[in-house]
Amino acid sequence: MRLQLTLEICHLYPDLMNLYGDRGNVIALWRRCIWRGIEARVTGVSLSSSSDLSQFDILFLGGGQDREQKAICYDFARVKAPQIRKAVEDGTPFLAICGGYQLLGEYYQTGSGEKLPGLGIMDLYTVAGRKRLIGNVVAQSDLAGSGPARLVGFENHSGKTYLGRGVKPLARVLSGYGNNGEDGLEGAVYKNAVGTYLHGALLPKNPWLADWLISQALKRKYGRAEIAPLDDTLELMAQESAARRAAKR
Ligand code: GLN
User: Fold this and answer.
1) Burial track 56-69 (b if 16+ CB lie within 10 A, e otherwise)
2) For the chain, which end, N or C, has fewer CB atoms within 10 Å of the first or last residue's CB respectively?
């Protein structure tokens, strides 16, 4: 009998952290599992919930503005930080976007000078700049290990993120600002946790990254990472159109 593969996906703070179609990332993960016959379930976990996060195979946290970031960083401190740290240390795939990405680091210093403590999972920090970094981005990533892969998305942030030695960049920017508009780097990777400034939604337009997260989750849970290929014609057309828009910046 064939083993039924099942992945539990956790959408952290779906009511607070969800900008520019971030929810589409969860839908893409879920759909790409279902299309392959992998059972997938999505559970939203928000403020104060003390759900056991170790039951999840993939974690997702979207972007949000300073007010929402402040609310969730208090919730991290009161309730979830130890569990999220443990999940990442145990190799759980985690995708965090923009405001969520900033909070994986040591701190985010807002435009008014307030320092919001992050989870300290990633060796990085973020300081708000004077200018908003807005527009379409094209970058190139080696994460999947099969040669450079294109990553497209939309960024809108004032925070500038600087990476320390303990993390690797997710990608190099070809067009756009990325982490800070200065060092040409975009996003960060620690174990199977990925942070990025790219909204979009990101995963529908970058199916290779969705599949990387799914593969890592299967490898961790079942010891096998191979997944069946899908027809990505539409996804790659969307990627191409986003790349063309970015080239016009
Ligand atoms: N508040 C953060 C910034 O502007 C995050 C914004 C976002 O998630 N789009 O830097």
Assistant:
1) bbbbbbbbbebebb
2) N
Q: What is the DSSP string of 69-114?
A: HHHHHHHIIIIIHHHHHHHHHTT--EEEETHHHHTTSSEEE-TTS-
Name the average pLDDT for the chain. Answer: 96
pLDDT band at 225 (very low <50, low <70, confident <90, very high): confident
Going 199 to 200 to 206 to 210, the CA torsion angle's sign is positive
Q: Would you state the structure tokens that stand for residue 94, as one six-digit string?
A: 């985690």
Which strand (E) or helix (H) includes residue 46?
Answer: none
pLDDT band at 61 (very low <50, low <70, confident <90, very high): very high
The number of residues making up the chain comes to 249
Domain spans of the chain? 6-247
Please say if 157 is a catalytic residue: no
Between the two ends of the chain, the Cα-to-Cα distance in Å is 54
Is 73 tagged catalytic? no
From ligand 1's centre to the CA of 64, what distance in Å? 6
Handedness of CA 10, 12, 15, 19 (dihedral sign): negative
What's the 13 CA to ligand 1 centre distance in angstroms?
A: 15
CATH 3.40.50.880 fits domain 6-247: yes
**Residue for token digits 């969730």?**
72
Task: Print burial letters for 137-151: b (CB count within 10 Å at least 16), e (below 16).
Answer: bbbebebeeeeebbb
State the Cα–Cα distance between residues 85 and 154, nearest whole angstrom.
28
Q: What is the average per-residue pLDDT within 60-84?
A: 95
Question: Does 34 score more than 80 pLDDT?
Answer: yes
